[in-house]
Structures are given as C-alpha cells and as structure tokens.
Amino acid sequence: MIVIFDLDGTLIDSAPDIHATANTVLAGEGLGDLDLPTVRSFIGRGVPHLVGRLLGAHGIEDAPRRARMMAEFGRHYDSAVNLTTVFPGVPQALAQLRAQGHVLGICTNKPVSPARAILRHVGLLDHFAVVIGGDSCPERKPHPAPLLLARSACGKGPVVYVGDSEVDAECAAAAGLPLVLYTHGYRHAPAETLPHAALLDDFARLPEVLDALMPAS
Ligand SMILES: O=C(O)COP(=O)(O)O
Ligand SMILES: [Mg+2]
C-alpha cells in the first residue's frame, strides 16, 4: 500500500515554530505579535495564505509588503525546528508501516525545503520515498495535483492519504483518494463533519486502521 501523509498538524505539532517565525517576520515589519491559537488557525494553506492572514489580522492588505514578508518567512523557515514536536506514536507507526513493506510519502503545503529540514531534524525523513511541498506544483492543496504527484512518485498500488484538516479532506476528495483524518491537528470544524474514510485519534492504531480500509493490500 502507498500511504501519503500531510505534515503540519498530522505528523508534527509545528505550530509553535510557525508562530515564532510569524512573530519574527511581523516584528521585522514593525507589527505586533499574534498569539499561538491565532497563528495556528492560519496553518494549512501554505506560506502565501499564512502571510496574508498575518497582515489581515493587523487590518493590512498590501501586496508588495506581503511578498516581502513571504521572502522573509522563507529565510527563517528551514531553521524553525526547535519548538516542534512529533505527535505521539508517529515514529513507531512509520517504522512499522515501512517494515510491513508500505511505501510512504509526504504531501504538505509547507515548502519542500523546510519540510525536508524539519523531517530530518526529527529523524523521520528517511522513511519517505517522496516529499511534495507547497512549491512542488503550480497548485497547492486543496487542488488535487500535489497529492496525485506524490502518489505517482510512490509507484503503483492502493493509496491512502492521512491528513488533519479541511484542506486535506477537500484535496483527498478531489483526488478520489480515501482520507484518514487525524483528530489532534489544526482543523476548524468538528472531525465528524469532514468527509473521511476513517478517523485516527492515536497513531498506534494507524496500521490496524489501514488494514481495515484495505484488507486486500
Ligand atoms: O500551511 C502549511 O504551510 C502547511 O500545512 P500542511 O503541512 O498541513 O499542508
Ligand atoms: Mg495539516
């Protein structure tokens, strides 16, 4: 089986690093800090969206300023690793899936460079056959193109996407793939209200959840 994972809010709790980076970039523009829940609620649609929301929270709409802040965010992003934690059970679940012969991939809206940097920092990068990021395609999730690209890079066979948010649910549906929705991530609506093939509240249960979805694989 091919198992493709979202990153922020699914495998890692990266909101504290993204929050710190956001406030560094805001300070560089002479703008005040935002709190963690506010910045967390902006995660999931990539850096352009996040920076637009940071400015929006200050009542500002200014395209050149937004472009400058996106570039600044990018300068800090690869080193934004120290406040991030891996969700419980993730390393064990990934190792188990690999040992069972499954092919694993990443499809995130985080750009590829910081996605690879954080995966390397937490010791998980080697599990993945491919890392598709928010800058890998002209389109970002919820467009299906990045997920379909990740899938084709992983070879042939049944595919499941594991994600945490509305964006992932919409992306999986558009790509025609089943979604396993991790419930401790950064979504806005109750988990039950998002389209999903299965809910996952504990990574220790992922192998059995996948078996139940794809008994024949
Ligand atoms: O919004 C981002 O940059 C990344 O979010 P994702 O890993 O949940 O796709
Ligand atoms: Mg996510």
Q: What does this protein look like?
A:
The protein is α/β, with parallel strands linked by helices and 217 residues long. It folds into 2 domains: 2-13 and 84-213, Rossmann fold (3-Layer(aba) Sandwich), CATH 3.40.50.1000; 15-77, DNA polymerase, domain 1, CATH 1.10.150. The protein has helices at 15-28, 36-40, 47-57, 63-77, 90-99, 112-121, 145-153, 166-175, 206-213, and strands at residues 2-5, 12-13, 85-86, 103-107, 128-132, 159-163, 179-182, 198-200. The longest helix is centred in the N-terminal third of the chain and has 15 residues, at 63-77. Bound molecules: 2-phosphoglycolic acid (PGA) and magnesium ion (MG). Magnesium ion (MG) is lined by residues 6, 8-10, 44, 163-165, 185-186.
Radius of gyration: 17 Å
Distance between the termini: 6 Å
Give the CATH architecture of the largest domain: 3-Layer(aba) Sandwich
Low-confidence spans: none
| Order of helical and strand elements | EEHHHHEHEHEHEHEEH
Strand-residue fraction? Answer: 5-15%
- Structure summary, number of beta strands: 8
CATH level-3 fold name of the largest domain: Rossmann fold
Largest sheet: 6 strands, parallel
Fraction of residues in H or I helices: 40-55%
Which ions, cofactors or small ligands are bound in this entry?
A: 2-phosphoglycolic acid, magnesium ion
Please report the number of helical segments.
9
Q: What integer is the average pLDDT?
A: 97
**Structural class, from secondary structure content?**
alpha/beta
Instruction: Enumerate the strands of the largest sheet in spatial order, edge to edge or round the barrel.
Output: 5-4-1-6-7-8
CATH class value of the largest domain: Alpha Beta
Global shape: globular
| CATH homologous superfamily grouping of the largest domain | HAD superfamily/HAD-like
Number of domains: 2
